[in-house]
Design goal:
This protein is an alpha/beta fold. It is 39% helix and 22% strand. It is globular. The two termini are 46 Å apart.
Length: 702
Amino acid sequence: MIKQVEKVKESLSQIRSSVKKAELDLVERDLSWLKFNQRVLMEAQDPSVPIFERVKFMAIYSSNMDEFFRVRFANMRRMSRLAKYGKKKIRRKAGFITPQKLINETLAMTWRQQEDYGRTYRETILPDLEKAGVILQTTEAFHPEHREVIEDYFYSQILSFISPTIPAQAGSRPLFLKNRRLYHAVDLVDSEGNTQIGIVNVPSEKLQRFYELPPIDGKYHFAFIDDIVRAFMHILFPKYRINGIYEIKLNRDAELYLEDEISGTLIEKIKKNLTKRDIGIPSRFLYDKTMPEHMVKDLQRMLDLSDNDLVPGGRYHNMFDHFQLPNPLGKEYEYPKDRPIAHPLIEEAGSVLEAMEQDDIMLHFPYQRTDYILRYFNEAVISEKIKEIKVTLYRVAENSHVVNALISAARNGKKVTAFVEAKARFDEENNLKWAHKMMEEGIDVRFSSLNLKVHAKVALLNGVDDEGNPKRYAFFGTGNFNEKTAMVYADHAYLTCNDTLTEELDRTMEFIFGNVTELKVDHLFVAQVNMIQEFERLIKREIDHVKAGKKGRMVIKLNNLQDPYIISKIYEAADAGVEVDIIVRAICCAVPRPNLRLIRIVDKYLEHARVYWFHNDGEDELYMGSADWMERNLYRRIEVVFPLHHEGSKKEIEKCLELQLNDNTKACLIRADMSNDPIQDERTPCRAQTDFYAWLKEYHNQ
């Protein structure tokens, strides 16, 4: 595989260098992502969203921002340091921007969003929770009826996990803050009037962040354990007067820097560097903005922080812990749980594999039953017809039923080959754990190289039919083999026994596994082989239709749109008169122009599918797969995109996209300034996710 990839990379490099990037109208990717996260915050601000769903969106926003600073902002910091020597610059709209200027713009945008976030929390979330009957207390001045309960909880539970310290005192260890952990910085004054800073950890990694207190007047009460610690600070520092208590937190660089390791295999390097992740260099020091300036400066010195590391925030950090906030009020304060729709062909056949033998199957998650995919693997375990299983695994669940099925298959005498992507960020440890377990059971586990990720979502069962002839059962997906995320990620899975597609997938997987060095495919698009060329061909064909006086149209759905070369082709198509609609959830480096509409949808499910629809003068062609239109996907990963020839499956996907294009409830237009402009008009209300579920239910007569 590596040899062909290197050859293709040379030609791809020439393609990429052909676009004059400085002349392209582009938005910087990280600023665009921040605008996506602002769209998440808009859901928390929407009064029509049930209150406990709004709390979840507040948590999602916080979790997203935390990862952003651990990964993307840390990368900006690295580039800023490099720029001091190599004058490195970053591509952006109308030219280039220095890393330090990008850092400044990022911090400014983050500050505005954090202010908006805090205002939303104080002025809408907390009051609306209280109106519903839940009081989330945000002070350490507890109600008299709660004091005894809180005191008992502090002494019996919290105190055993607390380690107060005064770093400046003689004999104390140098101050070290653990990655993403919460601490209180305490402004202390001794009997002689000298000031000190005390540090107290908040043990939210050991205990639930929210402690339920006895109800009062029919209302439920919860307290932050942060505030319980605050209330007893005088117990922790009995010899000092306490002038103030301020919450702090440190994010550390999450990059593993595998290329910096000289010796060892890829897996050895990953294992070694995982242990370093929690002690990496700082990327964000988040502190209560009411903290006195002298304390900020002292902590900056103790922790060896730069000015770029300092990010003022609110009274509380790690707001993603609001995922833990219990809902004592009932389901009416959340989105209703839709009953997963059964697939009639599978139900009639009583078997996924037997249904696949009759016809191709398109599944839509989480609208339909996610256990069908587990049944696909479990049936392979027990079927005498199936001799071999091949699969690519990018992110799997912590207690993966899919991997356990693969282990059962190996124990049952099947040949199993699994490609495990050990470099999937933040899932490295879990993936290595399962890879080790599979190898112990005799499964042939393959890994990628240092500079190449395999992001494809595919599986193949090789077997025989009743006459002993070769028979293949293929899974093509847009999402991971992960039962947990399948409940909240909107994805599609295509199950087929089509001879052409399954034969090409078999050869593609042999290429991915490294069993063959060359790959030629005519129907599948495989990144590093033919993908960018095929997408360019399809875009050019739409342009040619317009030049011939016909209609040209493209509907593209992605998670991220960032590659300058493909964006240049999109602009070329729009300028030629091709109607282009792009539904993009997160990063969007393109800007709208005549004939180019950019749409962002954020709703109760995370839109995760990648779909490519080309009008082709009425002979519509649809493709699906794992590839975003980003440089990393198109030039540094192995991705698989597949065509949809099955008419029933095409109808379902087209309907899904049509509803998303008509959404005037949860959709926003992405404007040239990156803002999210809600689509609100006089048409009949359309909410794509709920309407697609209703359509699919009727389509399958349920």
